[in-house]
Amino acid sequence: MRFIGLDVHQRYCEGYEIGSNGQKRRFRLANTREAYEEYGKTLDQDTRIVMEATSNAFWIYDILSAYPGQVVVANPLKTRSIAEARVKTDALDVQILSQLLAADFIPMTWVPAKNEYELRVLLHHRIRLTKIRTMLKNKIHAA
Fold first, then answer.
1. Which domain holds residue 46?
2. Which pLDDT tens digits describe the chain residue by residue (143 residues)?
3. How many domains is the chain built from?
4. Fewer Cβ atoms within 10 A, N terminus or C terminus of the chain?
């Protein structure tokens, strides 16, 4: 069984893998669809991947869930061991995530269906545009 922890950022993704024979390795992926699809081709049925729920975690979930293995999105508010760590680095975060996954201690979060997630993104975008419109109207009124 392979256990992989991913810490997703805006431009890259920090990764840590615990192999079936206990070997460990760190890696980094570019935050592009092509990089995730290439990485997805290396996955097999005995692979479990975990990442914390962030703004771009769900589109990565959609890409990787098309390949063999299980993808889990962790609730960041409930993964307290990472938040309470004295030394907080990306490399340490993904190591702890993959160890929690191997021990089956990951608090999973609900993942919406792709069409529902896309509707949520559109709704949040509309809310942002409405706030900008209101702000601009107030500036015009103040002038």
1. 2-111
2. 999 999 988 899 999 999 988 899 999 999 999 999 999 999 999 999 999 888 788 889 999 999 999 999 998 888 766 657 667 777 888 888 888 898 888 888 888 888 898 898 899 999 999 999 999 999 999 99
3. 2
4. C
